[in-house]
Amino acid sequence: MTELDEATRLTTQPAPVQQPRRGDPFGPLRLGWRQLTSMRTALLLLFLLALASVPGGFLPQTSLNPIRVDQYIREHRTLGPLLDRLQLFDVFSSTWFSAIYLLLFISLVGCLVPRTRLHLKALLTKPPKVPRSLAKLPVSERWESDADVDTALAQARSALRGWRVVRRGDELSAEKGYLRETGNLVFHLSLVLLLVGIAIGAFRGFKGTVLVVEGRGFSNTIASYDDVHPGRRFSPASLVPFSVDLKDFRATYGDDGKALTFNADVSWSKLGGTPKGYDVRVNHPLAVDGAKLYLIGHGYAPHILVKDADGTVLDDAPVPCLPQDPQFLSTCVIKQPSTKGKQVGFRGVFTPTTVTDEGGRVGSAYPGPKNPALTLTAFVGNLGIDSGIPQSVYTLETKSMTPVDNGQARALLPGQSWKLPTGVTLTYVDTREWATFQVTQDPGKLLALIASVGMVAGLMLSLFVRRRRLWVRAGGGPGEPTTVQVGGLARTDPDRFASEFAAITARMRE
Amino acid sequence: MPDKGLGQLSDGLLFTAVVVYALAMLGYAGEQASRKARRAVTAVRAESRVLLGAGGPPVSAPAVPVVTERPSRAGRIALVLTLGGWLVHATSLVLRGFAAGRVPWGNMFEFSSAVALVAVTAFLLLVGRGAVERSLGAFVMLPVVLYLGLASSVLYTEAGPLVPALNSYWIKIHVAAAVVASGSFLLSGVIALLYLLRSRYDAGVEARKSPRFPVSLGAQLPSAPVLDRVSYSVIAFAFPVWTFAIIAGAIWAEAAWGRYWGWDPKETWSFITWVLYAGYLHARATAGWKGRKAAWVAVAAAVALVIDYYVVNIFVVGLHSYA
């Protein structure tokens, strides 16, 4: 490297990949490592990462919506299974996606370590010596001064406030903008920290969802949840002990049926603690120590009363129905295996604002409960619950059952009953609502947040701070006027540096 | 409750802004056309001088209309129109906010209008700082006019309240940052395309070929290094803002959906956009990628951004499907 090169090398960016010496037993390894940590490879991996994410942005993903994935596979008989085998429905946990980002991060660390070392060295060493010819630099100026060399240099130095300046003989070397590389390193280091934070969350975190009807509750234990997603290294002992009761759920809608607000009025307590009230809303979760409780869904649960032929109460509880459209037409299933006679089952829809079209089909015109009705078809026979095959509470297996009234549906208003030929009576008592809650514990969250702040801060420094160097040489024999030469160099934004340079030299000449 | 009268006034103002922008575009184009004519005159004169100097028979000056001070006036009027259009556009957005009683970026229509406003703002700032010639406006106003026209015809939504999921102070922070970043990114995408055009034109001139349309437009553009630098500086400004927008979105998602990142389609495309712009910033500093390849990356990133906003919202089912 020539002297000018050395002085004007304003970057700690690594040099291009060089061939290793011949006869080096680790030559191929060394070359491979240098290739991996080269900027070109990193760039390629970066583009690969973007490309690999594209199918995740278009195809349904199991982690988001397993039902849509199944539907997609069913609808595309040849393509579906092929895409599935290529893990295209699980892009972000796929082998190939993981391989790309792991390689990228290895390349990043491999680049970060030497650059940090170089930068630390640069921070500790003084600005480089003045190049022989200052006139060759992008900006330079030369003038004669009446002051002697020392005074001229002192004046030059005072014009360089905020710069790191070192005097060697009759020369000044000055540098500014070290924070650019510091910011760059902080940004990339934060990326690594972010990945660690995400990994901690994925391994030690927990997510569970549970459906709760008004007046009921649950406690934060694995068994309470309808659906759990524990991390691979999650320990159930780390679940924060607390319980929640849903006192009241309210949804309000505009005249056009668009939802305006959702409120879940809950009472919660830690193990052995006194219960406290909280209003869980969208964007307003309940936080208990490291756990957070979110309101993620809602629906209707008509309260029904089932009596056997002899008047024994078999069931007196709300039945959660699953919403099917924006107007909350919801499907309901009621099973009653404990009858003395044949088992009974009901299947139908709940409609909060019931309307009937010309064909007699029931629908809902509004999501709020303006005119609720429960329209059911009844079946008698064998529910198949005892067959050993697991069944969902939301589906009715009618293979061994016969429909009542030839499958004619009957609409019940609140308070109305339906007596089946077997003597069993079903009463639609009133309407309650249910809410689904999600409880999340993510121990890596704070680290991810800190890393994100580091990313933005580092990024701003690395993009907006400009690194530049400036040199001054003063000379002249006794009796002669002093000649002052100044030269400067900036890697980025040369126009701005030129005007900065002009302002500095003007101050030096004052 | 939504105020209908204010909403209609806002719509009217937006329409006015589009018309004024279109007029400004014509002004910029007029400035370019007359400059081209002047250039032709100079060329012809130079030729005649050469002929005279060669000792040939005297040639009378050709009867080409002499261009006077008109061109710069057309350009100046265009700039004033752009400023006026900007004011009307900004007023329209503010009124929209009052009409709906909330921030004016609650649905795709409002979002598009705000993004266009940012792009025009960024262009005006660039011209004000002397980073680009104002005549670039012809190429900037064209996409702005098309974009606003499309947004107000296809995506139009009347001023109304927000869906509950959007009802959070994070909409002010997350969406505002996304609007600022997107407006800047889209502007940089246009400039990157113009850079590619200009460098094609330069290559053609170097090879002594007379370039055809649209490459011939390159003659009207600032030099390739200027376009490259401006495109870079706009991206360098927007990239941290975009990063912040994604992080603010993640914090909001943590409060609204119980996780800060879940590869929802909108999150995925924001990530792709981010990675591509990160790639651009690295490419511009890497030998073998500088110049045209880097500019193509900037264009690809802008395309990812458009997919992120429009394709994802309209065609892909996800948590961000609101309007």
Commentary on this structure:
The complex is a heterodimer of chains A (510) and B (323). Chain A has 10 helices and 24 strands. With 510 residues, chain A is of the alpha+beta class. Chain A folds into 4 domains: 8-125; 127-177 and 466-510, Kinase associated domain 1, KA1 (TATA-Binding Protein, 2-Layer Sandwich); 201-298 and 438-454, no CATH class; 300-432, no CATH class. In chain A, a hairpin with a 5-residue loop joins β8 (259-270) and β9 (276-281). In chain A, 32% of the residues are buried. Chain B has a domain at 163-323. Chain B has 8 helices and no strands. Chain B has helices spanning 4-53, 70-100, 108-128, 137-154, 170-206, 224-257, 265-283, 292-315. The longest helix of chain B is centred in the first third of the chain and has 50 residues, at 4-53. The radius of gyration of chain B is 23 Å and the shape is globular. The two termini of chain B are 19 Å apart. Chains A and B meet through α3, β8, β11 and α9 of A and α6, α7 and α8 of B.
What is this entry, summarized?
The complex is a heterodimer of chains A (510) and B (323). By secondary structure, chain A is of the alpha+beta class.
Helix content of chain B: over 70%
Greatest chain-chain contact: A-B, 53 and 54 residues
How many domains would you count in the coordinates of chain A?
Answer: 4
Number of strands of chain A: 24
The DSSP helix count of chain B reads 8
The Rg value of chain A, from CA coordinates, equals 37 Å
- Taking all Cα atoms into account, the compactness measure Rg of chain B is 23 Å
Shape call of chain B: globular
List the helices and strands and how they pair.
The complex is a heterodimer of chains A (510) and B (323).
Chain A: H1 3-8, H2 27-36, H3 39-58, H4 66-75, H5 79-85, H6 95-124, E1 139-145, H7 149-158, E2 164-168, E3 171-176, H8 179-204, E4 206-213, E5 217-219, E6 227-230, E7 242-253, E8 259-270, E9 276-281, E10 286-288, E11 291-307, E12 313-318, E13 322-323, E14 330-336, E15 343-351, E16 354-356, E17 362-364, E18 373-381, E19 401-403, E20 410-412, E21 417-419, E22 425-441, H9 445-464, E23 468-475, E24 482-490, H10 494-509
Helix pairs in contact in A: 3-6, 4-5, 6-8, 7-10, 8-9
Chain B: H1 4-53, H2 70-100, H3 108-128, H4 137-154, H5 170-206, H6 224-257, H7 265-283, H8 292-315
